Amino acid sequence: MLGKNWTYQQDGATPHTHHLSQKLCVDHFPAFIPNPKTRWPSNSPDLCSFDYSLWNELGQAMDWNYVTAKATLIVEIKQSVKKLKKKNF
Questions:
Q1: pLDDT score of 2
Q2: Burial level of 19, CB count in 10 A (0-12/13-18/19+)?
Q3: Quick check: pTM over 0.90?
Q4: Is-contact 8 33, C-beta < 8 A?
């Protein structure tokens, strides 16, 4: 679908840097940047900017007292997304 003109890169999360994960990526992707922990400075932002914007806003909008199980967590996330200000994103 994407052809061979792209590069795959993961963040430095422990599951992504495990030697088996690294080998799978090297073996299956046309281009791969291995072991991001040696190439990225510590505490650098992830590839996903949501980690520093959307998830923070969403967490603040949620009523955590209502969350008692997976089902109520899902309901609260859906309701809280509607509360977020569109101009922030």
A1: 61
A2: exposed
A3: no
A4: yes
